[in-house]
Amino acid sequence: MTMLDLQRVTKRYGKDTVLDDISLSVDEGETVAIFGPSGAGKTVLLRLIAGMAEPEEGAILVNGEDLIDVAPENRAVGMAFQNFALFPHMSAFENIASPLEARRSTKDAVADGVHKIAKLLKIDHVLGHAPRELSNGQKQRTALARALVAAPRLLLLDDPLRNVDAKLRFEMRLELPRLLEGFGSTVLYVTQDYREAMALGNRIGVLIDGHFVQIGTPEDIYLTPTTIEVAELFGDPVINLFEGRVEKAGDGTTAAIGDAKLPLPTGYEDQVGQPVIFGIRPENIAKADDGTAGAIAAKVAALLPLNDRLVRLLVSDDGHEFYTSRDLGSEEAVGEGARLSVSAAPQDIILFERDSRRRIAPAR
Amino acid sequence: MHHTTTGEKILRGVLITLALVFFLFPIFWILLMSFQTNAQILRIPPSLFFEPTLINYTSLITGELQTAAGSLKLEFMHNLWNSVILSTGSVLISLLLGVPAAYAFARYKFRFSEDIAFTLLSFKFAPPLLVLLPLTLYFQAIGLANTYIGLIWVYQLITLPLILWIVRGYFEDISPDIEHAYRIAGHSWAKTFMKISIPLARPGIAAAGLLSFIFAWNNFVFALVLASADKQPVTVGALAFVTASGIQYGQIAAAVVISITPTLALALFAQRYLVEGLSLGAVKG
Amino acid sequence: MTAAVSLTDVNKVYAAKAKNPIYAVRDFSIEIKAGEIIALLGSSGCGKTSTLRMIAGFEEVTKGAIRIGEKTIHTLPPARRGVAMAFEGYSLYPPLTLRENIAFALKSEKLGSAETNRRVEEIAKLLELTKHLDRYPSTVSAGQQQRASLGRALVRKADLYLLDEPMGQLEPQLRAILRGRLKRYLREHGLTAILVTHDQTEANALADRIAVMEGGFLQQFASPAELKAAPANLFVGTFIGEPPMNVYEVAPAIANGRVSFRAQGEELFGYEPGALSDTVMAQLAKQKSVVVGVRPADVVMKPLNGGSGATAEVVSNQWIGDQTHLESAFGDGVIVATLESRFPARTGEKLSIEVPPEKLHVFSTEGPALAHGSRLAEQGAT
Question: How much is the pLDDT for B274?
Answer without folding.
Answer: 64
